[in-house]
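Need residues for this backbone.
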């Protein structure tokens, strides 16, 4: 036991552990002499004492969070430090379980559910409740002697007992006082004692941890992040009072948790993680590849179980072990049947090979078969038996030819054609292993024929051809025709395949059919059917009359010759307020625009050239008579409002524009251009001034008189002074030239 204590001490001093003097005393070390008796030299003992004196002012104790503070269990902590680096690399399967979150720590002391194996100790609080005929409820804390003291019942010693036995003892004692036959009793651990556990050895973060006693050794190992890359996962020791009371095996916990050893810890217990034992590796077709720690006498079968077992693709007859020997590495091969009798050695490398993916003893039947698939090949298998295995041929199977694809000696597929007609002898052909039988679809040998229909049908386009399709059938398929379709003249364009290939002019024949007499005319593949419109068919086309007629509005044209007088008559004629002389037609066809129209003349003489034929979209405007004349532009009158630049006056028959300008518009403005005065009639006609501005236009009813302003160029030319000398000289030269020309012409005529 003294040697074990020394090992614990050395591991803790090497790996950053924190150990109190009380803990060392529990391990059997009470003085310097005990160290020397265990083999330490005086200098080593002195070094430990120096380190202790150096850091005793700053003790370092790791504690898990608890609901209630725990008084210090150690008075003078001894902290041993080392320069050794922490290693967290996961090397062996199972080492990372304590760092992956798979195991959690219970940090709360009062939100717990104790297992039957939990050991009761000082500080535990037990809740007892009775309900039914008898009523009772209270909590009891286990004292230093391990007792609880319910009133009336008396002291009950529970120290060191598991929780299952504790519940039985309490129930028995309370049953002597309370009627439990007619009542129920509940016994729960309401608060778990706080214990300090020392985790030492090959762990990532060794130290002392204060946690609720409900936690197991596995839970506490998560606080130290479990074994490091050199730490064992198979031989973790629980040390109490210098004795190993239990050994933890992570593999048993992972693979057989129901059989894994489980022990609750007491205050001051040690969890010691020794170095790894025998490490082997396994790779290939197993669930978990990697390195595993093995115990003495464990076999290849055990390793396969630890790795999760073989995969579905594993070869059970091809398991290799690469093993160190005196001459180097050697390979040994085994099957799964041998695995239980093959012990493993340190450094062994196990490789589980993969089964071949090639399928042997099979035949494949596919294509037009009721149940295509892969089937077992048996010696003597025939084509007929293979088809029967696949439940026979479908109704679409092509019987003239089927194919058997067979591997030849060069491992290439060769084709064997077979006939599947009822009396064919090919059904008795013997198949071979790995043959593939393919049945064709008879529809794959048929052309994809079609018809094309164009024109006045509701759904024109390409239609799949079917035998015995008639014109009537096709028109029904495409939704029928439009009303304007000419069903007496249906054109069918047909390819004549009997024409020689070099005749490129006559290979298309045209057939004209009437639906009334040729409704049952049968169509052929690739026919193009054209349904055209009735000749000269038109839907209603309209014109519009606007203005002074009795019934203005839109009127449909009937036929091609609709004259103006006809439409005016349909509109009820002109009203009394109409100004027929100034009517006009607005035509958008051919972008003609306005056509002047004198309806007074047209209505008196229907043969007049102004009795125009109307076109769809024409608009006839009949203005109302207007006795007002408007004058605007460069006139002498001035207006109060800036936007007013027009004067309206009464019409006087036969007067010219100059009359209205001088009499009503204040004459011409100084900037007026008298030569360009013009008037605009009610039908948009423009009448301009003639004879260099001397003959002003005669004004009619409703006209607008417009006086333009002079342009800037005209102003500049008129502002220039006339040089009369230059003008006289120019005229003299021109007259002299004219006289000379006259004399020459006279002489020519006399000769």
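Answer:
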């Amino acid at each position: 036991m003294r040697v074990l204590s020394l090992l614990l001490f050395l591991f803790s001093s090497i790996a950053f552990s924190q150990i109190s003097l009380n803990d060392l005393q529990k391990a059997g070390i009470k003085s310097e002499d005990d160290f020397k008796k265990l083999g330490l030299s005086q200098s080593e003992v002195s070094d430990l004492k120096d380190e202790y004196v150096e850091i005793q002012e700053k003790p370092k104790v790791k504690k898990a969070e608890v609901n209630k503070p725990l008084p210090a269990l150690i008075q003078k902590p001894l902290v041993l430090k080392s320069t050794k680096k922490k290693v967290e690399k996961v090397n062996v399967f199972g080492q990372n379980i304590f760092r992956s979150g798979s195991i959690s720590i219970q940090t709360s002391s009062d939100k717990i559910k104790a297992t039957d194996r939990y050991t009761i100790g000082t500080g535990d609080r037990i809740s007892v409740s009775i309900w039914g005929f008898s009523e009772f409820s209270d909590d009891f804390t286990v004292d230093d002697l391990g007792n609880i003291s319910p009133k009336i019942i008396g002291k009950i010693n529970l120290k060191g007992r598991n929780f299952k036995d504790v519940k039985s003892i309490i129930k028995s004692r309370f049953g002597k006082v309370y009627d439990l036959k007619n009542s129920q009793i509940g016994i729960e651990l309401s608060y778990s004692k706080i214990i300090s556990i020392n985790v030492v050895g090959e762990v990532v973060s060794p130290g002392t941890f204060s946690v609720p006693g409900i936690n197991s050794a596995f839970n506490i190992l998560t606080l130290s992040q479990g074994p490091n890359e050199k730490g064992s996962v198979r031989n973790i020791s629980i040390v109490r009072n210098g004795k190993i009371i239990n050994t933890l095996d992570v593999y048993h916990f992972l693979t057989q948790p129901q059989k894994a050893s489980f022990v609750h810890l007491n205050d001051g217990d040690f969890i010691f993680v020794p170095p790894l034992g025998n490490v082997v590796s396994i790779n290939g077709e197993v669930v978990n590849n990697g390195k595993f720690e093995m115990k003495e006498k464990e076999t290849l079968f055990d390793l396969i179980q630890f790795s999760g077992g073989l995969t579905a693709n594993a070869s059970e007859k091809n398991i290799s072990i690469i093993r160190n020997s005196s001459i180097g590495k050697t390979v040994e091969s085994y099957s799964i049947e041998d695995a239980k009798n093959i012990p493993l050695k340190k450094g062994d490398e196990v490789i589980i090979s993969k089964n071949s993916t090639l399928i042997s003893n099979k035949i494949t039947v596919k294509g037009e078969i009721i149940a295509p698939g892969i089937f077992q090949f048996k010696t003597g298998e025939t084509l007929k038996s293979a088809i029967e295995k696949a439940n026979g041929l479908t109704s679409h199977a092509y019987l003239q030819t089927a194919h058997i694809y067979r591997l030849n000696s060069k491992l290439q597929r060769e084709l064997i054609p077979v006939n599947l007609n009822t009396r064919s002898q090919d059904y008795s052909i013997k198949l071979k292993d790995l043959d593939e039988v393919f049945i064709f679809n008879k529809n794959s040998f048929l052309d994809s024929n079609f018809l094309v229909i164009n024109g006045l049908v509701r759904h024109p386009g390409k239609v799949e051809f079917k035998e015995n399709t008639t014109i009537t059938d096709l028109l029904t398929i495409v939704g029928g025709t439009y009303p304007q379709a000419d069903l007496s003249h249906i054109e069918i364009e047909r390819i004549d395949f009997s024409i020689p290939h070099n005749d490129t002019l006559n290979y298309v024949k045209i057939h004209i059919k009437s639906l009334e007499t040729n409704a049952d005319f049968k169509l052929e593949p690739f026919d193009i059917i054209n349904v055209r419109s009735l000749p000269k068919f038109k839907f209603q086309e309209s014109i519009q009359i606007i203005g002074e007629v009795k019934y203005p509005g839109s009127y449909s044209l009937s036929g091609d010759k609709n004259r103006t007088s006809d439409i005016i008559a349909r509109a009820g004629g002109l009203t009394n307020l109409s100004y027929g002389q100034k009517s006009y037609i607005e035509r958008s066809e051919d972008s003609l625009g306005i056509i002047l129209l004198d309806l007074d003349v047209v209505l008196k003489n229907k043969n007049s050239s102004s009795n125009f034929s109307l076109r769809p979209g024409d608009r006839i405007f009949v203005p109302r008579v207007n006795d007002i004349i408007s004058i605007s532009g460069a006139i002498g009158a001035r207006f109060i409002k800036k936007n007013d630049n027009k004067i309206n006056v009464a019409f006087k028959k036969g007067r010219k524009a100059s009359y209205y300008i001088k009499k009503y518009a204040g004459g011409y403005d100084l900037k007026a251009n008298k030569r360009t005065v013009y008037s605009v009639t009610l039908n948009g006609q423009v009448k301009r001034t003639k004879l260099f501005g001397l003959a002003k236009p005669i004004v009619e009813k409703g006209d607008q008189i417009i006086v333009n302003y002079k342009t800037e160029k005209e102003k500049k030319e008129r502002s220039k002074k006339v040089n009369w000398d230059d003008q006289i000289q120019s005229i003299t030269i021109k007259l002299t030239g004219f006289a000379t020309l006259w004399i020459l012409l006279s002489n020519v005529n006399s000769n």
